[in-house]
What we know:
By secondary structure, chain A is α/β, with parallel strands linked by helices. Helix content of chain A is 36%, strand content 22%. Chain A has helices at residues 77-93, 97-109, 125-128, 149-164, 185-198, 210-218, 222-231, 240-245, 262-270, 279-284, 292-297, 317-327, 333-343, 346-352, 382-389; strands at 2-10, 18-26, 30-34, 43-45, 50-54, 56-61, 112-119, 134-141, 171-177, 202-206, 252-256, 274-277, 302-304, 367-371, 395-398, 401-402.
Amino acid sequence: MIKLKADYVLTLNEKYEIIKNGEVVFDDKIIDVGTDLEYDLKEIYLGKNSVIMPALINTHTHLEFSSNYTHLEYGDFMSWLNSVLEHREDLFHGCKSECYKSAIKEMKKSGICAFGQISSTGNDLKYLKHSPLKVVYFNEIIGSNPAAVDMIYQDFLARIEQSKEVKNDKFKIGLSIHSPYSVHPILMKKVIEIAKSEDLPIQTHFMESKAERKWLENGEGEFKIFFEKHFKNAKPLITPQEFIEQFENTKTTFIHCVHANEKELQKINEIGGYISHCPISNRLLNVGLLNLESVKNFSIPYNVATDGKSSNFSLNLFKEIRAALLMHTDLHPKYLAKDLLKSVTINAAKALNLNNGSLEKDKEADIITFRLPNKVEDEELLPLQIILHTNKIDNLYINGKEVK
Amino acid sequence: MIKLKADYVLTLNEKYEIIKNGEVVFDDKIIDVGTDLEYDLKEIYLGKNSVIMPALINTHTHLEFSSNYTHLEYGDFMSWLNSVLEHREDLFHGCKSECYKSAIKEMKKSGICAFGQISSTGNDLKYLKHSPLKVVYFNEIIGSNPAAVDMIYQDFLARIEQSKEVKNDKFKIGLSIHSPYSVHPILMKKVIEIAKSEDLPIQTHFMESKAERKWLENGEGEFKIFFEKHFKNAKPLITPQEFIEQFENTKTTFIHCVHANEKELQKINEIGGYISHCPISNRLLNVGLLNLESVKNFSIPYNVATDGKSSNFSLNLFKEIRAALLMHTDLHPKYLAKDLLKSVTINAAKALNLNNGSLEKDKEADIITFRLPNKVEDEELLPLQIILHTNKIDNLYINGKEVK
C-alpha cells in the first residue's frame, strides 16, 4: 500500500474535484482519496507544486508505423494514402523490437498507462505482449473485394485467436473495422457479431476526409480514382448512416469524424458511440479540424489520441492535447483544457472499456505524478497550466506498481 | 574561414533555393553558397540528413517577464491585462541575471541568433548588453495621461541614451510605441520623429483584441471600464487609421493585428509596414487567430515571434512555428511551412533591419545546423519536415563564430 501526497490532486471524477494538499492511498486499486487520510503508512510528499492525477490513455495508435519519420507524404489525404501503400512494407519491416520499445518509452515518459493499438497484421503481437503499459489490442479487418472476403475473414479469426493466447492483466482485446469504404459489409456484420458476443470494444475510422463523404454518398471523387486504379469498377457498399447503425449495442469508437455531419453525430450519440479526435494527424493530412463544439452539443464523449507515427511526429499525449488546446481557437482555453484532461483519462478509459481514468475508490491504480514550475492560485486554471507546462512526468504507477 | 557541407542547404533567398549536398563558405560574412565549391579549406561534412539554414530571428519578446510561468491569468485578454498590472513588479523583480541567461539559453538552443526585445523599464539593459545573441533593443514608451507626458518623455530619452552607450556589433537600438490605446499622440509623434531622424526600427502592438477596436472606434467596451478605473474619464485619442498613417516613412512592425480589418491591412501595406504574428500568445489570451490569408493577400511580409513568457510557455521559435503550422488549418501545410521558415529568417531580418536571415554572399554569417531523423525525398516537403522534427539545433554560428 502506498500513500502519496501532492499540492494538487486532480481526481477527474464526475464533479471534477481538485483537492489542494490532497492524498491518494492505493495498492493495485485506489483505496482512498482526500485530505488528512489516516492510514498506518509513511506518506510520500511529492514536493512543491506537485500534481497527482490519473495516468493518461492513448486510445488510438498504429505502432506498426513507428519507424516513419519523413517517408510519408503530408499535406493531402489521398497523396498520403498512396504514400502509405507505397512505403507500408518498408515501414513495417523497419519497425522491430527496438522500434516498438522506443515508441512505448515515448508514451510512458509522457504519462500514458494504456493505449489502443490497431493491429493490421498481427506481427506486432510479439513486441506488445510484454508491454509495460496496458494494451487494448484491436485486431483490424480491411478488404472490400467480395472474392477475397473468406480468406480475409479466416486470417482475421486466426489473428484474434493468436492475440487471445496472450493472457495477462495488462493485455486486452478489441476489434477494428478499418472504415466504411474499405471493409465489405459482410465482413462488418461478422466482426460486429463477434464483438457483441464477446463484449469487445470496437474502433473504426469514420469520415476522416472529404473524399470519404464524396465516395460513400455519390461514388465519386478521389476515392473513385483510387479504387478504380486498385480494384476496377468498385462501388461504395454502404451509406454513412447505415454504417453507424450497424454498431448499435456495441462499444464503438469512431475515429476522426472530421467530416461527419450533424445527422451522423446524432446517430453516433443515439447508439452510445464514442469519438476519437486526432488533431495533429488530421492537420498533417490536411483534412480539417473536428468541430468539437458540435461533438459536445451532441453529448458524445470524445477522447484525444495521437494516432500512429504514420501521421504524427510524436506519441506524447501531453503534446497532443496542447496542440488541441492551441488549434481549437473557437473554444475558451480554460474550459477546453478541463475537457482535454477528461478526454485523455476518464473518457478514454470508457472508450477502451478500462477500469481506470479517474482517482476514485476501486479504480485500478493507474496514476501519474509531476511538478508544475510554479504554484497556481486559481484552481480553475490548473488544467490549462498543466497542459501548457507538462511534457513528461516524474512517476507512473500502473495497477499500483511504479513503472520506470 | 569555415566551409560546411550538409545534405540539405536552405538558402532562404528570393528563389527559395534548396541545395542538396550543398556547401556554405563563410568568415564573419557569407562568402559562397553552392556545390563543389573550391576553396583551400578543410570541408566539414555535417552527416546524414544534415541541414544548414539561416539562424532564426525572434522579432518580438518581452524578456522582462521571463520569470512568469503560472502567475498570469490566461483565457481572456482583459483579465490577463489586469493580472499583468497586479504581478508586474513581482515578475520584474523575479527576473534577474540567471533568469535572463536562461531565457537566452532557451532561444539559443532553438537556433535563434537575434531577438527584438521590448524594454519597458531599461532595467534589463545590464542583463542584455553582453548577450551572446544579437539584440535589437526596443525602448518602449507607454502613457496616455497628458499631465505625465513630459515626465514620461524625459525618462524615455534617458533610457535611449543609456542603451546607446552599449556599443557592440551585436546590440542595436529600436523604439517601441506600446499601442494606439496606451500612448498619447504627442508622445507618438515625438518618438516617430526620433526614429526617422536616426533610422531606427519601430515596434507597436496593434489590434491585439476585440476590446481594442471597440475602444478606439467608439470609446466603449472593456477598455472603457479599464481606463475609468485607472485614469477616470479617459477617451480614445486616435483612430486606428490615423495611428497607422503616422508611421509612414518609418520601418515599423505592427505586432499581433488579429483584429485589424482589411482597410487597416491595406494601409499597413501602403506604408511598407511589417506584421509580427504571435500565435501562441494570441491563443492564450483568447483573442483569436490572425487571418494569415488576408495578410498575404495584402502582400505584407509577416514574421512569427514568441512574444514574452508573459503570454507563452516557451521561447523556442521552432515550437512556435510548429504551433502556427498546426493552428492555421485553413492553409495548406506544405506551403504554409515554406512561408513560416521565411517568416523567422529573411522576413524577420527585414523587420529588425538586420543584414542576415538568408544564406547569400555578404550577408552576416548567422547560421544553424541540425539533423533530420531521416532523408526527405521531395524537396517541396523539406520545410514541413524541418518544422515537424526540429526542437533544437546542433550548431549556431553568429557573425561566423560558433556560439555554444
